[in-house]
Write a structure and sequence with these properties.
two-stranded antiparallel sheet; mainly alpha
Length: 143
């Protein structure tokens, strides 16, 4: 049962990404601008978090707990905003999609929202709550 829930949440996240990309292409005005800037914030935080870990890893270092946690919260928060903006764009399209499709997309968005919120909280609690390493590097104490 746990694997089924994980696959449903993962599939929901993927579908919301596709719906959001479609809305990014079809929406106009302020909503499109908000979706675009939310995408930029998400991709920048993604690049800083994982790219920064990669670069710091070459020197045997890693992010401290606070910057890593802030970047993770920005990732989770911007994706949650992405889901809300995609719903805000998709649901008013009454003439193009039926109420059944709107209901399905709302359920998919709810599953994706809960999945991202749940996974984000788990990673934040267990990934950044550990103690930091203190090491000696070239005569300097590093944390």
């Amino acid at each position: 049962m746990g694997n089924l829930i994980a696959w449903v949440m993962l599939g929901s996240v993927f579908l919301m990404i596709c719906i959001g990309i479609g809305c990014l292409r079809s929406c106009e005005g302020k909503l499109r601008t908000c979706l675009f800037w939310d995408t930029v914030v998400f991709l920048a935080a993604l690049a800083f978090h994982f790219g920064g870990n990669r670069v710091l890893g070459f020197f045997g270092l890693s992010w401290r707990n606070l910057p890593g946690a802030v970047l993770w919260m920005v990732l989770v928060g911007s994706f949650l905003v992405w889901i809300i903006l995609a719903l805000y764009c998709f649901l008013p399209q009454k003439d193009e999609v039926g109420w059944v499709n709107q209901g399905i997309v709302t359920l998919v968005a709810a599953a994706a929202f809960l999945g991202v919120l749940w996974l984000g909280a788990i990673v934040l609690a267990f990934g950044y709550g550990e103690t930091e390493q203190v090491l000696e590097y070239q005569g300097k104490t590093l944390v």
